[in-house]
Amino acid sequence: MTANSTRAGVRHASVSIRLESVTKIYSGSKAPAVDALDLDIPAGELVALVGPSGCGKTTTLKMINRLIEPSSGRIFIGDEPSDSRPVHELRRAIGMVIQQIGLFPHKTIAANIATVPHLLGWNSAAIADRVDELVEIVGLEQSMLDRYPGALSGGQQQRVGVARALAADPPVLLMDEPYSAVDPIVRARLQDDLLDLQQRLGKTIVLVTHDVDEAIKLADRVAILNVGGVLEQFDPPATLLAEPASEFVADFLGEDRGLKRLALLTVADLDPAFGPMVELGAPSSEAVEVMATHGTDWFGVCRDGDLLGWRTAGSLNGSVDETDVRPFRSVVTTAASLRTVLEGIVTSDTNVAVVVDEGRYVGMLDVTDISKSGSVQPG
Predict the structure, then answer these.
(1) Side-chain-facing half-sphere of 275: CA atoms under 13 Å
(2) Is residue 134 within 8 Å of residue 127, measured between CB atoms?
(3) Closest by alpha carbon to 44, among 3, 81, 10?
(4) Helix/strand number for the chain, H first, E second
(5) Residues 118 and 168 sit within 8 Å (Cβ to Cβ)
(6) What are the distances in angstroms from CA 155 to CA 18, 151, 186, 248?
(7) What is the pLDDT of residues 93-103, one digit of tens each?
(8) Superfamily of domain covering 267-375
(9) How far apart are CA 124 and CA 122, in angstroms?
(10) If you write DSSP's letter for every residue of 329-376 in order, what string do you get?
(11) Which residue intervals of 40-79 are DSSP H helices?
């Protein structure tokens, strides 16, 4: 199915979201929960709202689909003001995934997913087709459709929640701390699933999270809010980490923001050096020269460009053969993050990470190479 067609009719393209001087003051409170917030969310991007408790991130999310009405200011979905149509029509055009998942316990998984298409009057065949499609998209099994939510794990229920939110193919998806109730392993898997889904579907997604690492991993842009809904910075994760706009942003990101930034860069963003590597069968003098050039007491061994491992200087005896060849502890591809590479370097015997492409030797990276990545922008 293409990005702009569906068995039930025309699929919605992603749309931008714009907040203009949006303010929310709750009854009985003098201070605003959100204060004159301006925010432009481009179509097809995933934007994360993060900040300390009381910063208004959930309030902002709920104002987008009018679960909470702004005290002043305007919100546009595409070019259309959000208050220009009945609220129930607006909400049916916006998918919502919440922390508690909110599935109907008395309905089957299939019926839960079909909730909005049913309300929109889709015919039975179109609904069944869409449910089958979504089960595949979110990574569920067809055998689960006749079960009830209580029979599923937390991670499976969360996938059902995402499927239900996407059922009518809304252009906008709102997610309020969707993964905070699952364990770290399941959480990481669901985050990866969301990245994959976003790459395929290109929705406009607004994600509220208290976890800055989650925001950095998932978002195209991150909005950091201060208490009272004050926008401190709105930028891509790499910019936030390299150039925090204020002391508040720097403190919120943490002292390890340099390491966080390494998670956004990959080996492909660098140019690995060839390193102390020789071909199988080379004379020992060549291995000695390579080690002297690179200041090591070991050298790597390849066979016609295929990585074999490494040997110590003390193991040399005649030409370079496979005697005493040891596997490198850290072998990575060009898709590996530099944070993963750094972890491999500091635990390896050779203090390098070896880069391969389908087994073919590409080059080596060491701590010095990683330290030079500060001026590199993610590719």
Answers:
(1) 29
(2) no
(3) 3
(4) 14, 18
(5) no
(6) 32, 12, 6, 34
(7) 899 988 766 78
(8) CBS-domain (3.10.580.10)
(9) 7
(10) S-EE-TTSBHHHHHHHHHHSSSS-EEEEETTEEEEEE-HHHHHGGGGP
(11) 57-64
The CATH number of domain 5-262, selected from 3.50.50.60, 3.40.50.620, 3.40.50.300, 3.10.20.70: 3.40.50.300
Alpha-carbon gap, residue 76 to 74, rounded angstroms = 7
Q: Which residue has the tokens 């001026």?
A: 375
Chain-centroid distance of CA 369 in Å reads 25
Q: What is the pLDDT along the chain (379 residues), one digit of tens a residue?
A: 333 334 344 355 679 999 999 999 999 898 999 999 999 999 999 999 999 999 999 999 999 999 999 999 999 999 999 999 999 989 888 999 887 667 889 999 999 999 989 988 999 999 999 999 999 888 888 999 999 988 988 888 888 989 998 998 899 999 999 888 778 888 888 899 899 989 988 999 999 999 999 999 999 999 999 999 999 999 999 999 989 999 999 999 998 998 899 989 999 999 999 999 999 999 999 999 999 999 999 999 999 999 999 999 988 888 899 888 999 999 999 999 999 999 999 999 999 999 999 989 999 999 999 988 876 777 6
User: Per-domain residue ranges for the chain?
Assistant: 5-262, 267-375
With residues binned 3-state (H G I as helix, E B as strand, rest as coil), the percentages for the chain, rounded to 5, are: 35, 25, 40
Rg of the chain, C-alpha, whole Å: 26
Is the alpha carbon torsion for 97, 103, 104, 107 positive or negative?
A: positive
β-partners of residue 40 are 18
Pairing of strands 46-50, 221-226: parallel
| Residue with the two structure tokens 């490494």 | 310
Task: Please give the model's pTM, rounded to 2 decimal places.
Answer: 0.81
DSSP string, 135-184: HHHTT--GGGTTS-GGGS-HHHHHHHHHHHHHTT--SEEEEESTTTTS-H
